Amino acid sequence: MSDGGHALLVDFGSTYTKLRAVDLASGRIVGTGQGPSTVTTDVTVGMEQALADLARRLGGTLPVFRHRLASSSAAGGLRMVTVGLVKELTAEAARLAALGAGAKLVGTFAYSLTAEDVTTIEDLAPDILLLAGGTDGGNSAVILENAAALSVASIRCPVVVAGNRNAATEAKRRLEAGGKPVVVTRNVMPEFGKLDLEPARDAIRAIFIDRIVHAKGIDRAAGMLDAVLMPTPAAVLDGAQLIAEGIEGQGGLGPLVVVDIGGATTDVHSVCSGEPARSGVLVHGLPEPYLKRTVEGDLGMRHNAAAIVEAVGPARIAADAGLPAERVAALLALLADEVERVPQTPDEARFDRALARAAIGLAAARHAGTVETVYAVTGPVTVQRGKDLSAVTTLIGTGGALVHADDPADLLRPALADPSAPGSLRPERPRMLLDRHYLLYAVGLLRAVDPAAALALGLNHLDTLEEGCHARHRCVS
């Protein structure tokens, strides 16, 4: 543990600039502050307001901060496009690398890019493009064709080349001939069925710091900070990893899953191997990354409420909310007209609860793998696709819908294994915790400079949830 001092941990979000002041000796929050996100105008305005809010909550005086670190998901987050060779292989590996680096994936392309594909990429206006394709020593033609096609595109964003190493130098030359900034890193799939995602993730994060922070205007706050370290989703995943693994001399909580439900997306992070928990199971498809993040862009509580209802069916939402179908339709229309609306009546609260439960259940099921019995010439075989989360020991919930719920355990329960869906490999009997203070990003940031204080911060402020329990601040020991 640190010998003292304080840290200021900042998240430049799309709506708010959020501050957490942490005592490094105890690993506890001493104050919080919040201001509007003013990245599109002058980021320092919102930062100053958040600092003033923090000072007011601390009695008028800010402590001297030993560390002042920030993450950002502002101005739409880190917009990224990936291009690979085969959809199920190198394109999927590129997608996993992008999501793990904290990017907002706005487009995924496979095979040789067509003129229409290039036009679509130009319209998407990515901040970074990840170009993959071919195993090392394998297919070179497609990645080189795609490099040539992208070299004449109107995009000016950096390109990370993470494909066949035998073609990487030529791909870089073609892209640079078109005026594109290029970073070459190791292949995301150097051998068939083998992933190597971390070098690409590191390259994406480095570009975020070097270029995107400036492009988004966040570097205007440089005088108030030591560094903007990474995109906020990457900070959350780093925080989850630390809480799972612990540090030398102090263990963590073990394999875990984080469900983060928001107004526009529901994100799921997992820290575990994902290998079959049962013997005799054959794994099909690409190996799953130990650190995995999925983003469900159709499962936001406000911007995508209609998509949630459509995905599970109005009848299920009505039954879970205990409301007539016509009332559900009326409430859905109300949200369409007022996206930022918070529940103001008991009916709206019940509808919100049902929406959250549906979104969490769907997002967890999509993140988790599946298992099924197939029949081969030798007889029945149990086949797993994706990540087995059944033995995960901890499930952490965060996001406004959970934090403000009367019974967050009730909302989080659909992320668990369901007897009615025996093929879904969701967690079976985890301890359920709540990140009530929205601290996972702060844990991830602090980990970079003081892992012991960061671990204490996470463990001190995660609340234990019990079935039907409305109690607050039941902290992890």
Automatic annotation (TrEMBL):
Protein's recorded name: MutL protein
Family annotation (InterPro entries): MutL
Organism, scientific name: Azospirillum oleiclasticum
NCBIfam families reported in the protein's UniProt record: accessory_GlmL (NF040745), glmL_fam (TIGR01319)
